[in-house]
Amino acid sequence: MDEPENEPASELASEPEDEPIDTEPLTDPSVPYGTPPEQLNRPPEPARPPFSSVADLVAKVRSREMSAVEVTNLYLTRLQYYEVRLGAVVRITREQALAAAEAVDEKIRQGADEELFLAGVPVVVKDNLCTADCPTTAASKILEHFEPGYDATAVERLRRAGAIVIAKASLDEFGMGSSGGFSTLGSCRNPWRLSDMAGGSSGGSAAAVAASLCMLSLGTDTGGSVRQPASFCGLVGLRPTYGLVSRFGVIAHACSMDQVGPMGRYVEDVARAMQVLGGYDPRDPTSLAVEQPDYLAACEKPLVLDDKPVRIGLPKEAHEAISDPLLRDVFETAISRFADNGATTQWLSMPMAKHGLAAYHLIAAVEAASNLARYDGVRYGRRASLAEPTSDEEVLSALYKRSRQEGFGPEVRRRIILGAYLRRFGHKEDLFGRACQVRTLIAREFAQAFEQCDVLLLPTVPIIGFAVEDTPNVPLELYQTDVFTVGASLAGLPALTFMAGAVRTTTTTPTSPVGMQLIAPRLQETLVLRVAAVYQRLTTFHKLEPKDYLDSEEDPFGV
Amino acid sequence: MNNSVEYEPIIGLEIHVRLHTRSKAFSGAPSEFGGRPNDYIDPYSIGVPGTLPIPNRLALEYVLRLGLACGCAIARMGEFARKHYFYPDLPKGYQITQSDAPLCEGGRLDFLFCGEKRSVGLLRIHLEEDAGKMLHDPVRNVSLLDFNRAGTPLAEIVTQPDLRSAKEAAECLSAVQKLVRFLRISDGNMEEGSLRCDANVSIRRKGETLFCERTELKNINSCKQMERAIESEIGRQIDLVNRGETVTKETRRWDAEHERSFPSRKKEAETEYAYLPDPDLPPFAIDPMWVQSIAAALPETPMQRRERYMKRMGLSAYDANLLSTDPELGAFFEATLVSAGIPEKGEASAEEDRRRAKLCANWLTTELLGALGQQNRPVAWSPVSAESLGELVRYIADGRINGKQGKEVFAHMYESRQTPTEIIERLGLCQITDTAELATVCRRVLAEPTIEKQIQKYKTNPKLLGFFVGHALSETQGKANPERLSAVMQQLLDEKTR
Three-class SS of residue A104? Predict the structure, then answer.
């Protein structure tokens, strides 16, 4: 395999020295969020974790070379040190994590570790997935101290496999947003460029993995909320087929499109997570009762299907929409890499896809307005305090209005109003109904495309990233970043983003990862994993480390 | 009220039946009565985020049972919709119901009104979940919420506006109560809230075909109250029209204490519910084989049973009504029929079967219910089982004992709980039916010297037959079968006097 030209050789040469692992907590967990680094007691920067992959970590823990408690402390240290400047987590679950790690170690000691496929793996869970042992807020004031008292199925399955939940990741409120900036608890920054946003809505989950604050994370993808931040942060992010991973315990945004998705640095890591997450759950009425394939084995396979080369379809309109020459460069190089290594590529026209954005936002707004009707402060969550109104009716009305006005952020309110308007005055058939019809047409277009190819390859996002100051205030501009991701959401198809390359916009700015997206027919996760795994064998982009969030300011390319 | 003659009331009913399943419509929390507030809830019942609805198969089956019993068309695809409004007793801010595609459509509800059969058309029957309860505590000035009821399964029945009087409407409601009890899908208890009913009332001039503006009456807690409420509303509307005003479309709340209705404060008529097909519950296919099996297992409805009793068994309307409307009596009666030798749910075309059926009915409604009634006991308590009663009827119908003996045996049965066979043997009561034996007795009687004169008188007065039969009967200590004896005696007398 040839090394690509723009790969910095020095990057790979600088291996971390062997350092003793520091297990003491470095900073006081009760230090308020947002304290600038200068005011913290600054001990030395924590070492990078000595694991090359999830498989490596699991092997070390199960062979008792390291204990799960040691591993957990290692990552908790990193988390506490860096999370202030990243804003990636809303809550660190220190005691719970250490207790869980103890339990995993105990199981290993007793030899009862057959199920522990992810033994000791630190994971960060997006805060719209319910966890039994700590509050779940969906980054919203209206669920400020809310304790669901149960684990989401996805979380339960990870825990059962021995993974350790060390923190709840920040997100755009209720999953509504594409920047990571709509959290009421502060924005989440991209570890590759602190001046940029991590993306959304699973920004925290992505930033945490990218900065090695954990090895795997769970996000949720409604219109691209796993893939977009994963792309901005240089990760592999998978959106499974609709119904493959249970939605039980996911705080709903748009039920017909919400899916839990894993993020990790390597394709194999994500495959491992899928092995644990996928499968029928009787508590979810939309859960699919299908046999789980061997996702991990798929990562070893070549670009050959049924003795024929894998046919990669390239949606013409999507690729032509990219104007930035840096991005075009990365994409064209990536395509030729696939072509040179056994796959056939062909251009396809998919004209319906561009209507996906409007259809998605209409449908999502209507479903979101419905799903968020339950947040009124009456049974749980934050309830507004009331001044003296005059009659019973006014009390009730005031309670609802004030609780919801105070509890929801601006983007959430925007979408609820839009959804309510569409339902009540849009005369369903006119707008919502038509959006559903467009959705059917888009699904059909995918089906037709898959008659000519096995998998689609297209960009994940149309931009390199956006800076905090530049984050569009006009929501419509922000919605545009979803243009390539909504299609798979509307059609319920599996879609994966991987790091296709890296760019620098000037000689002084840090590296920016560039992601590309693979979409396959329903239940063909193995196909997108396979193709992405091949890419990771052909390249070393995924081994790049972000540097901007570290104390030291090394030039990432160093040449 | 001369003017009321010109108008006819148009009434339709909306009935909510609470289905007697073990768990709620879309979650596993228990669906029970009694209990303290919030004893029977789970996270779904209070709308905890992240919980999802799972349809209750038995609830679906109960709605299908009801629809099939009414002859409705059953949908091929089931769908659920969300109906949105904000109220504290509605945990999710929406109710899961069915909007465009109810499980059952069309069909009819048959019931008795003034002894005659009436038939009301049904618009639809569908499945939905109930809301919780909100109570106001005026002392502490707080509102209290109880979610035990939230999520329990309801069957909503909407009738066509075919009813034409308040009494008829009350009868119709009562018929629904009996039907759901008979189908064992609900206890139909209005006091406990297992059955709730709203009435839509309007009036129009007799002879017209268009419908006018209607009002909706709510908060009706019994069949009697239904009648009074509708009467009151009809009167109110007629008064309005006579004064030259128009009836406005509104919701009115019935106050049973003051026997008046008041306009409801909640602006329900104006609420836009924004129905949305529930994205959590994709449409599902309803297996026709499953529907068939439910139909096959359907118990007879009271009206169907009434038809069968009257037409095929020749029971009187009174007996048929009584035996078809009480499920326990009906079951007892059916078991008695079987024991008496009548094929189950059979054609009963033979005269003999009809005779036996009538006997069963008489013994049940007159003798058994009479005895139980004196002790104020229900039929479930009866010391006489259906099998025993049927056996007794069999003895009588075969002519092995006569009616008078039957009563004696019955009294013993009631006291001692023994079977008829045991008692008859013990008392040696078997009736003499053998013609030859009877003939012997008759000849003996006729041979007596004191009877000679009477025989001569018989020539001119055939009614004296009874005198001879009576003698013969007492000769046999009442054991002779009266009809046979009479026939034999008559034959012999005719011979003698020829």
Answer: helix
B3, B153 Cβ separation under 8 angstroms: no
3-state class of A105 per DSSP? helix
Calpha distance B406→B372 (Å, rounded): 17
Q: What is the DSSP string of A407-471?
A: HS-HHHHHHHHHHHHHHHTTTTTTTHHHHHHHHHHHHHHHHHHHHH-SEEEEES-SSS--BTTTS
Q: How far apart are the first and last CA of chain A?
A: 22
Q: Which residues of chain A approach chain B closer than 8 Å at the C-beta? A: 129-130, 136, 138, 143, 146, 148-150, 152, 247-252, 254-256, 282-286, 366-367, 370, 372-376, 378-380, 393, 396, 400, 420, 423-424
In this predicted model, what pLDDT tens digit does every residue of A383-400 receive, in sequence order?
988 766 666 667 888 889
Instruction: Report pLDDT digits (tens) over A138-192.
Output: 999 999 999 999 999 999 999 999 999 999 999 999 999 877 666 666 678 999 9
Report ipTM (2 d.p.): 0.87
Residues on chain B bordering chain A, Cβ-to-Cβ distance under 8 angstroms: 43, 46-55, 82, 84, 86-88, 91-94, 145, 265, 272, 274, 276, 279-282
Separation in Å, CA A116 to CA A56, A76, A121: 14, 21, 10
Helix/strand/coil for A249: coil
- CB within 8 Å: B281 and A366: no
**Calpha distance B98→A520 (Å, rounded):** 35
Comparing A67 with A469, the larger pLDDT belongs to A67
Q: Which two tokens stand for residue B214?
A: 């209607």
Taking the C-alpha atoms of residue B480 and residue A15, their distance in angstroms, rounded to an integer, is 118
What residues of A are annotated to the active site? 126, 201, 225
